[in-house]
Design goal:
Elements (H helix, E strand, L loop, with lengths): L60 H39 L1
Length: 100
C-alpha cells in the first residue's frame, strides 16, 4: 500500500532538499519526486499596450466611428436589396395575374 506525503521545502546550498516528518519510519524505502516551481514571468508590455490590439477593439474614437459607419452602410445596402427583391416578387405576381 502506498502512502503519500506532500511538503514544500527550500533548496539548500549544493542542491540539498531535506524532508522531515514523523510519518516516515526509519529505514523505509521511499520514492522522492521533486517538482521545481519556476519563477513567474512578468509581461514586459504594460497593460495599456493591449488597448486596441485585440480583434473588435478600437484604439481611437475615429476607428469606432468608422466601424459604425461601415456597419450602418452595410445594413442600409442589405435593406435596399431586400426591398428590391420584394418589389420584383410583387411585379412578378402582378404579371402572372394578368397572364392568367
Amino acid at each position: 500500500m502506498l502512502n503519500g506525503l506532500r511538503q514544500q521545502a527550500i533548496v539548500k546550498p549544493g542542491g540539498v532538499v531535506e524532508i522531515c516528518s514523523p510519518e516516515l519510519p526509519a529505514g523505509a524505502t521511499v520514492e522522492v519526486i521533486v517538482l521545481l516551481e519556476s519563477p513567474a514571468k512578468h509581461s514586459e508590455k504594460p497593460l495599456t499596450s493591449f488597448i486596441g490590439s485585440a480583434r473588435g477593439n478600437f484604439a481611437t474614437p475615429e476607428e469606432v466611428d468608422n466601424f459604425i459607419r461601415q456597419e450602418r452602410d452595410a445594413w442600409e445596402l442589405m435593406q435596399n436589396f431586400i426591398l428590391y427583391l420584394a418589389s420584383l416578387s410583387f411585379i412578378r405576381r402582378g404579371i402572372e395575374g394578368e397572364v392568367s
